[in-house]
Amino acid sequence: MHTPAISIEHLRKTYGNLVAVDDLSLEIQRGEFFGLLGPNGAGKTTTINAIVGLVKPTRGHILVMGLDAVRDYRRVHRLVGIAFQELILDGSFLNVREILIYQAGYFGIPPRRARAKADELLERFGLWEKRSAKVQELSGGQKRRLVLAKALIHDPEILILDEPTAGADVEMRLQLWEMLQDLHAQGKTILLTTHYLEEAERLCQRVGILHQGRLVSLGPPEQLARERGQAHLEDVLLELIRSERS
Amino acid sequence: MMGFLTLVKREVVRFLKDAIDTIAPPTISVILFLLIFGVGLGSRLGDVHGVPYVQFMTPGLILLAIVRNAFLNPAYSLFQSRWYGNIADFLVSPLSVEQIALAILLGGVARGLVVGALVLVAAWLLTGVAVAQPMWALGYALAVAVAFAGIGCIVGLWTRGWEGVGAIDTFVLDPLVMLGGVFYSLEMVRGVSLIEPLTALNPFTYITEGFRAVMLGGAEAHVLTGLVLTLALGAICVGAALALFRVGYHLKI
Q: Is residue B64 part of a domain?
């Protein structure tokens, strides 16, 4: 049996008295399209930031393809591409093409290959016409696509997407879904956080629902809905949140 | 290594692309010091320690340029990357935290040396000043740039706002450098209350005297004292910056 793409073991993260993630254990298999769901503040972003080393776990371990995310962070980073929820782009003095070329460089890709890879992604994500533009000149949708292209610049095996369609209009959301389905079809493992439940139902093979830092439900979306006698994940999530409150 | 070189290139391109804000103002202000205090008022002072005053002050002005620019580049670059969040680009790459720290530090060293070299060229054109020991002077300037770029890295990590960098520049670096023998030697202020003790107690005075001795030709003891102080400061500041990067201070939560 293959080593899981991501294995989270008893992850706990606290900020003072606030428990952001509480004893989370979870495995994501290679080639899986996995969704991490939950309301705001559920611990989704903290979890994915812990996978890429931006958050230091208070307790617990994370293994990526069998490598320790803290000890072997450099090798782990080669395997993972991350698109943050906030449109973080190094755009103060670099244009769109340069952003991708520099990002490739940080991953050790030589300049000629970096330029070729950047151009390929600019074409693929419909940004070629904007290659000389500054980030400030891009629309929200174009920035979103650039963030995704940046995450793919080193051709990672695992793609982590934090709310990839947040703020996107319907058309752009459909476009992004299509792109993500293509990437999954190419064999990428995808971990996506979202609070658009329709998105999870459409794209994800399995979902984990986080609430107040704890994993409260795990399984294929339709199974979770069926088991709880609900038509959609949205109803499952609402039921879970209400039962937690009562 | 490719990743490290890319980040060094980013740090250098960052200040070169914005040269009108990063290179021109400090170069012009130091050249104005040279013209007004050196060529202008200095002509009334005659020789100081065997050289015209304008030549006497040149090494101090070059150090002033190196110190401020080597400090400002990493301080602003790091804080800007933290502020806008693009520091994550480096932190999620396969670069080690030590490589990230050193690349940012080298950006500061490069800017310090570029501005220092421009001031030297301006001084040579205006006064004909020559460098007595060019290789030693370059090595000394490099050591000073590394030390102050290390301070820039620490401040860039520590500050929680843009004003933090400016505050360290205004309240720490400016007094340290201005009262550190840039415009005068310790002998020139013997018996002058307040100025003499402040200058004598200021370690930067001995760093300046050492650089002046290397540039204009002077006592080896001055060079040695200045160099030892610079290397010690560099070791402490670069070591502290690396330690902060390793623990993820203000980088990881």
A: yes
Interface test with A, best of B1, B5, B6, B91 (most A CBs within 10 A): B6
Q: Which residues of A touch B11 (CB under 8 A)?
A: none
Mutate which of B92, B95, B100, B251 to disrupt the A interface (most A C-beta within 10 Å)?
B92
Q: In percent, how much of chain B has pLDDT > 70?
A: 100
Which residues from chain A sit within 8 angstroms of residue B247, using beta carbons? Answer: none
Question: How many interface pairs between A and B have CB atoms less than 8 angstroms apart?
Answer: 75
User: Chain A contact for B95, CB < 8 A?
Assistant: yes
Angle among Cα A175, A177, A179 to the nearest 5 degrees reads: 70
Most B CBs within 10 Å: which of A49, A84, A90, A146, as the mutation test of the B interface? Answer: A90
DSSP secondary structure letter of residue A165: T
CA distance B200 to B186: 7
Q: Chain A residues with CB inside 8 Å of B98's CB?
A: none
Other beta carbons within 10 angstroms of residue A128's beta carbon come to 13
Output the six-digit token pair for A23: 């004893």
CATH 3.50.50.60 matches A6-86+157-245: no
Among partner residues B18, B85, B93, which is closest to A77 by beta-carbon distance?
Answer: B93
pLDDT digits (tens, 9 = 90+) for B85-94: 899 999 999 9
CA pair distance A39, A237, nearest whole angstrom: 9
Q: What's the structural domain count of chain B?
A: 1
User: Helix H segments across B159-219?
Assistant: 162-168, 174-178, 195-201, 203-216
In this structure, what are the phi and psi dihedrals at residue A103, rounded to the nearest 5 degrees? -60, -40
Contact present, A51 and A62 (Cβ < 8 Å)? yes
Alpha helices in A64-169 (DSSP H): 73-79, 96-106, 111-124, 140-151
| ipTM value for the complex | 0.89
Q: How far is A65 from chain B (nearest CA, A)?
A: 15
Q: Is A205 exposed, middle or buried (0-12, 13-18, 19+ CB in 10 A)?
A: middle
Parallel, antiparallel, or unpaired for β A189-194 and A33-37? parallel
pLDDT band at residue A1 using 50, 70 and 90 as cut-offs: low
Provide the residue range defining the domain that includes B81. 2-247
Q: Where are the domains of chain A?
A: 6-86+157-245
Write out the E strands in chain B.
47-48, 51-52
